[in-house]
């Protein structure tokens, strides 16, 4: 599974970045590239981060998925994009605080 993610994740990132470029230049096909790329990045990041033990990895997997979906919603001008991004950033901040506290206690 990990080898498949090592191949899928970079390809999905390239597709998402090409989608961003197409969107900026107003070329056709940008929306489908963004949808495919960002959803694949979000799912792959959630699988990779969620496979580890501990609550921190589960929360960071959720934050990574929500951030990818939130950026997708913002780029396509769908409703609730900003709210999804804010929730993802709040979860990311919580993970950062938990990681810092655990690192200092060890």
Protein architecture, described:
The chain is mainly alpha-helical. The chain has 4 helices and no strands. The longest helix is centred in the last third of the chain and has 25 residues. The protein starts with a helix and ends with a helix.
List keywords for this structure.
mainly alpha
Rough shape?
Answer: globular
* Percentage of residues in strands: under 5%
Indicate the mean pLDDT: 90
Total count of strands: 0
Brief synopsis:
The protein has helices at residues 2-24, 30-50, 55-75, 81-105.
Topology, pairings included?
Elements lengths: L1 H23 L5 H21 L4 H21 L5 H25 L1
């Amino acid at each position: 599974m990990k080898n498949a993610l090592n191949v899928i994740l970079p390809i999905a990132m390239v597709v998402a970045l090409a989608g961003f470029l197409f969107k900026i230049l107003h070329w056709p096909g940008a929306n489908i590239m963004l949808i495919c790329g960002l959803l694949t990045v979000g799912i792959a990041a959630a699988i990779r981060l969620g496979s580890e033990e501990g609550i921190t990895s589960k929360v960071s997997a959720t934050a990574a998925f929500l951030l990818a979906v939130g950026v997708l919603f913002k780029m396509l001008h769908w409703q609730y994009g900003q709210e999804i991004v804010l929730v993802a950033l709040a979860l990311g901040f919580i993970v950062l605080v938990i990681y810092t506290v655990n690192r200092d206690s060890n």
